[in-house]
Design brief:
It is a single chain. It is elongated and about 110 Å long. The longest helix has 22 residues, at 273-294. It folds into 3 domains: 3-172, GAF domain (Beta-Lactamase, 2-Layer Sandwich); 183-344, Alpha-Beta Plaits, CATH 3.30.70.270; 353-605, TIM Barrel, CATH 3.20.20.450. 43% of the residues lie in helices and 23% in strands. With 606 residues, it is α/β, with parallel strands linked by helices. Helix 14 (418-438) packs parallel to helix 16. It has 21 helices and 21 strands.
Length: 606
């Protein structure tokens, strides 16, 4: 500093006053920078408890402010060093770096890669870390004299006292800086700032393998529905904290929207793809277990998409897009892969494009007659007499490509447009049954399936009432099948809808019973008219254990006065076993495959 510390005396007078003035700080920074011929000076303050510093003041010799109003998040180990001191620091808590000392410079402190020398001085108020001041010189060969160090320490103390004296703590006052750079709920960076951090993290590629993770939570909406949006925000805040608990792996992260989080993580370069996925799966399972202790009735699941960064030349937007794509694919195909973590594969884009086309083509398909129903008879097990049928939707897409329900039903369910599909099926079945009745022809009860989406919007019963008014059908000729997994996960809603359907004279069955979701106490909540034993139990070759389980299910159903239908009966051996087990009804290819309406009507007219 200049002789006799006259500059410090001048700054002391400038920063002594009863009011806070930004201009005083800015002019003081300029005076110090010009006096020492520095490149720039940055003042950073603590934003919150989330290891974030925000650059609140900046001076540069070229007049460019490149850090001002930006924020940086730091790992746990760096933050601890700032709170507790560096190993080589002196009592004044100064960290010194120059280009030739071989110690990596934390680039989040500086503007660009030209830096030659840095003095990083931490600020403390009542022994609490409140920020830092960085004095930077871009010119090589800088030597900080003892006089300069002592003068800058004095300046830092004056600055710290002035800033903290006037309630100048970012997380205690409204700040446009925070709202523009960081997510209000989680205090994580917003997407644009996260992308900047990702680019900076590419420097780690020489030492570690980097991956971008995109994650979200299946059934997060249940938390908002059941516990309220305030609890939903608490959930998101806790997720943000927990993510940064994995500081060994996580370099940076953000919440891009809703419950979707993006992370850049590092791992050993020797990790194989399988090793990486297994590790993420393990962490995800443990985390879901932890969440389930509080949100036990929401059936939460973590979905993770992974993109491995191969080069520091990768396009960040494309890398993030790939991770998002893998997450969506993992979420949609979990039932096939058995887990919800997948790495990006170019084939995923084609598959998701196909699914998007199915959704967009559904309305057109209904209007143009591409969708049609087939009926599979339900018969008495002993004499094979037809006593009912199940209506099954089919899609002859573009008039040549015949699709089965498993090809499109799961897609429509996830999108929510399955409601339109179900309404189409119900209308067709009500019409078919009514026309048979009005023409005096033989008719048997026809069952239709109820998708899980109907238990969210409360519109099913009003629509059924409209159909009753439109077709004047006898309710006892229509059965509604509710999948066992829906009955278990949406117990209260199912009970309400089931009761309202039964009040109107319809019969309700639990479909796919015994497929792995069964909760027997559900029968104490509602009373179905029957159960359908799922195909997963009715195997082609029944072993001893299969037979024991089926007998128990049939016996339970009979004792509860439920009608029991065994699905998937393919051979005479299965049928004879069902007869011995007192299972009265069956459905399967042994009697007849699903057939179009005209073929089914011929059977009824025989």
């Amino acid at each position: 500093m200049n002789s006799g510390y006259s500059l410090i005396d001048e700054i002391t007078k400038k920063l002594d006053g009863a009011t806070y003035d930004n201009d005083k700080i800015e002019s003081s920074l300029a005076a110090v920078g010009e006096s020492l011929r520095l490149s720039y000076i940055a003042v950073k303050e603590v934003v919150s408890e989330y290891r974030v510093l925000c650059c609140t003041y900046e001076w540069s010799s070229d007049g460019k402010n490149e850090l001002l109003n930006t924020e940086a998040r730091f790992t746990e180990d760096v933050w601890d060093q700032w709170l507790n001191g560096y190993e080589n620091q002196n009592v004044n808590r100064v960290w010194e770096w120059d280009i030739g000392n071989g110690v990596p410079c934390p680039l989040k402190l500086i503007r660009h890669d030209k830096v030659a020398s840095v003095l990083h001085m931490q600020m403390y108020k009542n022994e609490c870390f409140v920020g830092c001041v960085d004095f930077v010189d871009d010119k090589p060969g800088r030597v900080w004299t003892d006089e300069e160090r002592q003068g800058l320490l004095t300046f830092r103390d004056l600055l710290c006292d002035y800033i903290t004296r006037f309630h100048k703590k970012i997380n205690e006052i409204p700040s446009d800086i925070i709202s523009s750079a960081y997510d209000h709920t989680t205090k994580l960076p917003r997407y644009e700032y996260f992308c900047m951090q990702v680019e900076d993290s590419f420097k780690e590629l020489e030492r570690a393998q980097l991956v971008i993770l995109s994650l979200d939570f299946t059934n997060f909406k249940f938390i908002n529905e059941k516990y309220g949006h305030e609890e939903g925000d608490i959930f998101l805040k806790n997720v943000a904290k927990d993510i940064y608990g994995f500081t060994k792996y996580v370099i940076c992260c953000c919440r891009s929207h809703s419950d979707n989080f993006l992370l850049v993580c590092k791992c050993d370069k020797t990790y194989t793809k399988a090793h990486l996925l297994n590790r993420i799966e393990e962490i995800s399972r443990n985390y879901v277990k932890k969440l389930s202790e509080k949100y036990f009735d929401c059936n939460l699941c973590v979905n993770v998409g992974v993109h491995v960064i191969r080069s520091n030349m990768e396009n960040i937007e494309h890398a993030i897009s790939n991770a998002n794509l893998a997450r969506k694919y993992a979420k949609q195909r979990k039932h096939e892969y058995g887990h919800s973590c997948l790495t990006y594969d170019p084939a995923m884009a084609f598959e998701l494009k196909r699914r998007a086309e199915y959704i967009s083509d559904m309305k057109k398909g209904i209007e143009s007659g591409e969708f049609f129903l087939e009926y599979q008879p339900i018969v008495c097990t002993d004499n094979m007499e037809i006593i009912g049928a199940e209506a099954l939707i089919r899609w002859k897409k573009d008039n040549f490509n015949r699709l089965m329900p498993d090809d499109f039903i799961p897609i429509f369910e996830r999108d929510g447009c399955i409601v339109k599909m179900d309404y189409y099926v119900y209308d067709q079945v009500f019409r078919f049954v009514t026309e048979r009745l009005e023409s005096g022809k033989n008719i048997v009860p026809v069952s239709v399936n109820v998708s899980i989406v109907h238990f969210y919007d409360n519109k099913l019963i009003p629509y059924i009432d409209e159909l009753l008014e439109k077709y004047k059908v006898k309710p006892e000729l229509i059965y509604f099948e509710i999948d066992e997994r829906i009955a278990v996960t949406k117990l209260e809603n199912v009970a309400k809808v089931m009761h309202e359907l039964q009040e109107r004279g319809f019969r309700v069955y639990i479909d796919n019973f015994g497929s792995g979701y069964s909760a027997l106490n559900t029968f104490t909540k509602f009373h179905p008219n029957g159960i359908k034993i799922g195909r997963s139990l009715m195997k082609t070759d029944l072993d001893k254990n299969d037979k024991i389980i089926i007998k128990c299910v049939v016996n339970m159903g009979n004792k509860l006065n439920l009608e029991v239908v065994a699905e998937g009966v393919e051979n005479e051996e299965q049928r004879q076993f069902l007869i011995k087990s007192s299972c009265e009804y069956m459905q399967g290819n042994l009697f007849a495959r699903p057939m179009q309406q005209d073929g089914f009507e011929k059977l009824l007219d025989m």
